[in-house]
Amino acid sequence: MTSLPEPPASLSRMLPYLAKWSVLSALVAVLAGSASALFLFALDTATAWRIAYPAIVWGLPLAGFAVGWVYWRFGRAVEAGNNLLIDEIHDPTNVVPLRMAPLVLAGTVLSHLFGASVGREGTAVQMGGTLADQLSRLPRLGPGDRRLLLMAGISAGFASVFGTPLAGAVFGLEVLVIGRLRHDAIFPCIASAILADQVGLAWGVHHTYYAIGTVPAITAWSIGAIVVAGIAFGLAGRAFAGATHGLSGVMKRWLPYAPLRPALGGLVVACAVWAIGTQRYVGLGIPVIVEAFAQPLPPWDWLGKFVFTVASLGSGFKGGEVTPLFYIGATLGNALAPLLHLPFAMLAGVGFVAVFAGAANTPLASTVMALELFGPAVGPYAALACAVAYLVSGHRGIYRAQRGDGHKTTA
Q1: pLDDT tens digits along 25-56
Q2: What digits encode the pLDDT tens for the residues 174-209?
Q3: What is residue 339's three-state secondary structure?
Q4: Are 186 and 173 in contact (CB under 8 A)?
Q5: Who's near 224: CB < 8 A, 6+ residues apart?
Q6: Same-domain status, 44 and 183
Q7: pTM over 0.85
Q8: Do residues 162 and 253 share a domain?
Q9: Which residues make Cβ contacts (< 8 Å) with residue 5, sequence separation at least 6?
Q10: Both 305 and 368 in a single domain?
């Protein structure tokens, strides 16, 4: 992998560098933040329609076929999604086709409208990275600049869709290589993430508030309990990544015609919704995540979301993995809390970020997210759980294009 250019060392060269990347980061932020705002508004509308007309879930097989056909016909070059962006940062070849942004936006909104269990991070990151990459066509920008733009776009998309600018910045620096943080892009990623979040807020975006409740004092018991919980969160993240990739591989072997995969997955999900009589495990699941911070929940909620999300993403629906991972983590933490004698709201918050840390191999970004969403008091617990989950999950992650540097312990 070719390294990114180091920032200039002398002050006379640093000022032009900062000026250049301040302008480029602002452009990336406006593009990514605006795209995320449009996406979130469309997602709210689609979710409201699905809740108002629950029978719409029976259209999920047709929606899946439509999404699969459009990607098969027009989007083969961008079907890899987040992995394409990561690959282009590692080994730059061609500018990411602009059609990635509208395709993933439409595909994700359609998936949510009819009841697939998918997230939103993948869409925001793909839009942010794609739009940022178009700026690499500007004159006097080289391959190293293009890598910085892509990383800034990833950070801006993540930050603006979740309202976590610092976590978004760290995510863009951490997600590329397992076990290594890319400091050479720190200014573009931080500047783009902070500004993109502000752009989203300026458009009127509102993010969900999660009340963490009382955080207990650190004791030998609480530390031990968090380590145990972290192991469970890491195993959940590892299982999620393995199941999603495994189902995707099976579907590709048995159904070579791509549009049939999400059509079949949509039929299975629709029948499952009808069989259990609830839409609790489809869509983003934000209301259930909020419940996990407010009251004890059925201990099988995390498994329900796990199965529905693997079926949706593994069969080819578009969206993202992260919000479903938040759901799985929060409800699993809620279920473990009485067993570990910890407050359920606090352990829901820790699980929220730790399952994501294990599945995405991003323990630092996940810890920073906990600080931004839940406050500093939960920081030591979240950091420990994210570290344990990251170690337990091994090299199995939701992003196939991630590379390892040989320093991560595998389970």
Answers
A1: 999 999 999 999 999 999 999 999 999 999 99
A2: 999 887 887 889 999 999 999 999 999 999 999 999
A3: helix
A4: yes
A5: none
A6: yes
A7: yes
A8: no
A9: 144, 145, 184
A10: yes
